[in-house]
Amino acid sequence: MAAGGRTRQLPAPLARSLALGCAAGQAWEPRAPSRRPHLSERRSEPRPGRAARRGTVLGMAGSPGLLFLLFLLLCAVGQVSPYSAPWKPTWPAYRLPVVLPQSTLNLAKPDFEAEAKLEVSSSCGPQCHKGTPLPTYEEAKQYLSYETLYANGSRTETQVGIYILSSSGGGAQQRDSGSSGKSRRKRQIYGYDSRFSIFGKDFLLNYPFSTSVKLSTGCTGTLVAEKHVLTAAHCIHDGKTYVKGTQKLRVGFLKPKFKDGGRGANDSTSAMPEKMKFQWIRVKRTHVPKGWIKGNANDIGMDYDYALLELKKPHKRKFMKIGVSPPAKQLPGGRIHFSGYDNDRPGNLVYRFCDVKDETYDLLYQQCDAQPGASGSGVYVRMWKRQQQKWERKIIGIFSGHQWVDMNGSPQDFNVAVRITPLKYAQICYWIKGNYLDCREG
């Protein structure tokens, strides 16, 4: 705290790193001679101090500028270039922040009155989002605090603290304001419909398509752990209250439906599958960030449109891990992929891929063809995992909804995915594993 009780503010590049967790791991690259790289873009090799060698977790205290500068330097050291092998786009390695619960408050049982929305829309496009102020440290803690809903209808609110391994800091940064886009009629198919319906159990039951599941509220989710499903927050909460059916929320897994009641799993003579059906598992509890609940009315909620569901029992399928979203230019071919249960193709799993058109710190703008029902799909890419020497797919975002944007006076529409930033990764990973020590590499 500065004199007079005012909150000390960080220089802009340092505060940006708090919101992005080392700017989503983007490595420094040479710039044009006319532009001198800013301090936040330079690579440094600091000598770790005694606390860094111990790997202790230090709180956000002390001199914000100096401590957060140390965080910046640690991030630079902790990153591995995504181009370590020129022919293999490689997953960067990150030193991640830690998001830990501080206190939990019991809340009254909610009213499950909201209508399920299979999509969300916003007129605030890339320039608008780039022009909004980044949260202060206190605001970031509020947005990453979360609400938990249990199967019996009870709920809690958990306040969190944000910590950084071996360094600390905090503050805020203001960005220049931008103009918002214009709201227009929604359209989520761009020219020729480039979606692919996935048929046949040999595909539907195999990775990565088998990780896509259907929510009983009508959205899509993705298996990210043995008992956990990642989806969009608006699929279960409208920003004010929970949607109808959330208290008895179920997750559906496609399985073959056999004629004559044959099971087919271990019997080679059993009847052939006639079609696919959903097998449902009840949800034990859900987590929704307060950034969605507090900010849904003013577009900031779009940045926090994600939720995690914990199932009552393991699903026994291969799942896809989450990862920190690299900058768009580091994605293989600049493309993303996702599969979902679009409602214009009932009963079908629909796969698509497309180029990323623009990005902000929290969102990816693309024109993948999609329809309501695909919301909540896990957006993934496949890159080389240097440590294990293998290719690996990871979820780097959650498909959220649709936006009309005023681009230099010309209307343009995008579909939007919420990026998994280092802070969001730390939060979601803790929800899954319950131990920050298991969440140190994204």
UniProtKB/TrEMBL annotation:
Residues 26-56, 167-186 are annotated as: Disordered. SUPFAM superfamilies: Trypsin-like serine proteases. This is Serine protease 23. The chain crosses the membrane at residues 57-80. GO terms for biological process: proteolysis. Gene3D superfamilies: Trypsin-like serine proteases (2.40.10.10). PROSITE patterns: TRYPSIN_HIS. The keyword Transmembrane applies. It comes from the Eukaryota. The keyword Protease applies. It comes from Rhinopithecus bieti (Black snub-nosed monkey). Residues 207-348 form the Peptidase S1 domain. Belongs to the peptidase S1 family. Keywords: Disulfide bond, Glycoprotein, Hydrolase, Membrane, Protease, Secreted, Serine protease, Signal, Transmembrane, Transmembrane helix. GO terms for cellular component: extracellular space; nucleus.
